[in-house]
Amino acid sequence: MNARTIRSTLFCGSAILSALVYAPAAVAQADADSIDNTGDIIVTARRVEERLQDVPISIAVYNQEQLDARNVTTINDVAAFTPSLSTNPRFGTENTSFSIRGFTQDTFTAASVAVYFAEAGALRGSTAQTTGEGAGPGSFFDLQNIQVLKGPQGTLFGRNTTGGAILLVPKRPESEFGGYVMGSYGNYDMTRLQAVLNIPVGEGGLRLGFDRMKRDGYQKNIGVGPSRLADTDYVAARLSFLAPLTDNLENYTVLTYSRSKTAGTLARVTDCLSTATLGNIPAGKLSCDQVDRLNATGDFYAVESATAEPLSYARQWQAINTTTWNVSDSLTVKNIVTYGELANRFRADAQGASWVIRADDPVAGANGTNGNFTGLRLGFALVNPAHGVDNNNQATFTEELQLQGNFMDGRLHWILGGYYEKSFNLGAPTGAFTSVFVSCSGDQVSTCVSPYRATGSITESVRKLTLKGLGIFSQTTYEFTDKWSVTAGIRYTEDRSASIDRNFTYRLTPALSTSCSSADTTLPTCTGLTKAKSSAPTWLINLSYKPGTDAMLYAKYARGYRQGLVNPRALFPYKSFGPEKLDSYEAGAKLNWHGSAPGYVNAAAFYNDFNNQQFVVTWADANGRTFSGIVNSAKSVGYGVELDTGIDLFHRLRLSGAVTYLHTELKDVFVPPQGPPGFPNPVPTAGNGDPSPIAPKWKGAASARYTLPIPEELGEISAAVSWQYTDSYMSTTRQTSGVDSFDTFNLNFDWKDIGGKPIDLGLFVNNVTKEKYYVFVNDLLSRGFLSKITGQPRMYGMQLKVRFGSEAR
């Protein structure tokens, strides 16, 4: 199907939908006494407060009550029941990246889905893991709502993105005293305590929040280190202050802090190729030995760590100050200034390999030519923080000024603004110490041995990374009749990045040999300087038609852009890459109806034409060591349909469901035949016609909630069942990285206002049927193995919440 045909289909579909929407809308207007609450949900997708059903954007919205009922603690939990949203959990819950409509993020690239908390962009990261740019542990308490915006956000938000945006909107302080305390307990010794206190201060207020959670790991480690991995251990705190300085001037400040320290999540080696060798290393045999050890446990969640102290650590804080001045009824000035810091440490073999040298190994065994290393444990690529520094320690400052207004008796709404961002290293350079086929007891070369001599290597990569971004934007909506409106927006963005980096390669042969990893640097410092600049205009044109209060049709065209960047860990000549460009077409409809069975239907169809795609390309040397770089070497197309619906039956039964169909297809894939010096061999990767990574073709969710008919003085008791389905998808651009489809069921029981008191009880069971499934695959079969990250097992628990003051009503 060609692009012209698909675009025509979208807009013809809009015309067909209009016929379906108009008739029910007339009925709905006649029944205005029974308005479903769905139509009154307030969102800020266009930087102003609007009803969800009035916004011509495909959006999924969840309030805090819904998150609590589902025991949401990470963005992976949200993605499970949001069909349009997927996550990449390769580096654990602290380092998750996101995918919407097939737009993903690789390491050292900018986010394709931006995250905003209280209108402030997430803190930047700078490591070989996808740190920062996401909603980490401790983000999901005391929220007004979460909004998942689908499609490019190129005119109104601070950062340009191609996939969409996730808005975390915290509850603002109120002028009444109130709060709550909530405790949770569950299997794997899960404990969680949340507390919120709201104190009135004049006409404003001070709001304090706290969230602490611990849970034992569900992965059983048969290697070295702790006996359990995939644990949870975080603390988060929040302080917000709302000060109405005058009748038309308001200041709102949010301070947020979180710290997470766990043993991380490890991939399980599931498959091996016994004949594979890497230089003089029998990689296939060593991998098959590991598969046998894991299978012998009979435990699906068994893994084998090669490091004695695995670690996944993240600490961040951020200050957000928003000043709003209502100059007049037709003009508002808004300023948002933020500063925050993010530090990360990561220690593990992300691929999950833990090779134990065999006694019969002719090179490193009992009678080996290099000595007897029988029983010594090696990782495939063990990552540590570089000596004395963090993997990442980055500060981010942003400043945004907006002017908002309306003219022509409120028919013309406009916003004009500017955005500036700077992200920079704090103090010493940051980076990683990575041992490949080498055993190290510390983060210095002197602690390492290389049983296979020159086949093994150690790389030390540190850098100081600076990012700067500048944007100027404007968007206007004109309601030229009571039913028709048009929105046009434009933005110009300029992004700059610079890296001062040092990349060393060490080999023990057995004498120490030191060289510069990248051919454009020289000993003794191996220091390089790389700069990159990208800029582009982006725009939006949107036509909306509202036949009635509770119905809307829209059609939209948007240009999207994702910045180019330097890649400080890369090798010459692949130390930077250019920006991406997206043309996105969308048509949709939103409908509410009322009466004895109120409900809603939201539908959208979209087509994406993606150019200059940032594509991961890998080359190998003669010993199987690999280098991966980002190259603008592909195009792709994507199209699909999103449907979200819900209905209330008999005033007690609530049925809801959502489904997304997504087709992605790579085109014009080009792999440069010549890699960086020392890595001459291209590794097979995805080609023309293959799907994009983290882009399941079908993803759906459905739920049913029933409220029991009991006297009001006893409270409100409800029970719910939900189902989530994810179709098969590719984890990366490598051809055997496919994840099989899976589905899970959840159960919830809630008793609110027990006995008429402000006490709530909740019970939850996630993955009721104990479905065993994988969520990510590391494709390293040509090097001897595949490893896979397991999805969560059955989790269950209870929550008890006591409300007081204004929260008790």
Protein model, in words:
It is a single chain. By secondary structure, the chain is mostly beta strands. The chain has a single domain (3-480, 504-516, 530-808), classed as TonB-dependent receptor, beta-barrel domain (Maltoporin, Chain A), CATH 2.40.170. It is built from four helices and 49 strands. It has a 26-stranded antiparallel beta sheet that branches. Strands 3-8-9-6-7 form a five-stranded mixed beta sheet. The chain has a three-stranded mixed beta sheet with strand order 14-13-18, with no helix packed on it. Strand 11 and strand 12 form a beta hairpin. The longest helix is centred in the first third of the chain and has 28 residues, at 3-30. The relative contact order is 0.13.
Number of domains: 1
Overall spatial form: globular
Fraction of residues in helix: under 10%
CATH superfamily: TonB-dependent receptor, beta-barrel domain
Rg estimate, integer Å: 27 Å
Distance between the terminal alpha carbons, to the nearest Å?
56 Å
- The helix count comes to 4
Secondary-structure-derived class = mainly beta
Provide the CATH topology.
Answer: Maltoporin, Chain A
Low-confidence stretches: 3-36
Any chance you could write out the topology, listing elements then pairs?
Layout: H1 3-30, E1 42-43, E2 50-51, E3 59-62, H2 64-69, H3 75-80, E4 85-88, E5 97-100, E6 113-117, E7 120-121, E8 143-150, E9 164-170, E10 178-186, E11 190-201, E12 204-215, E13 219-221, E14 228-229, E15 232-246, E16 249-262, E17 268-272, H4 283-296, E18 302-303, E19 311-328, E20 331-349, E21 355-356, E22 377-378, E23 382-385, E24 392-407, E25 412-425, E26 430-436, E27 439-440, E28 448-449, E29 457-478, E30 484-508, E31 512-516, E32 527-548, E33 551-562, E34 565-566, E35 576-577, E36 580-593, E37 599-620, E38 626-649, E39 653-667, E40 681-682, E41 698-707, E42 716-726, E43 729-730, E44 738-739, E45 742-752, E46 759-766, E47 774-780, E48 785-790, E49 795-805
Parallel strand pairs: 6-9, 13-18
Antiparallel strand pairs: 1-2, 3-8, 4-5, 6-7, 8-9, 10-11, 10-49, 11-12, 12-15, 13-14, 15-16, 16-19, 17-48, 19-20, 20-23, 20-24, 21-22, 23-26, 24-25, 25-29, 26-29, 27-28, 29-30, 30-31, 30-32, 32-33, 33-36, 34-35, 36-37, 37-38, 37-40, 38-39, 39-41, 41-42, 42-45, 43-44, 45-46, 46-49, 47-48
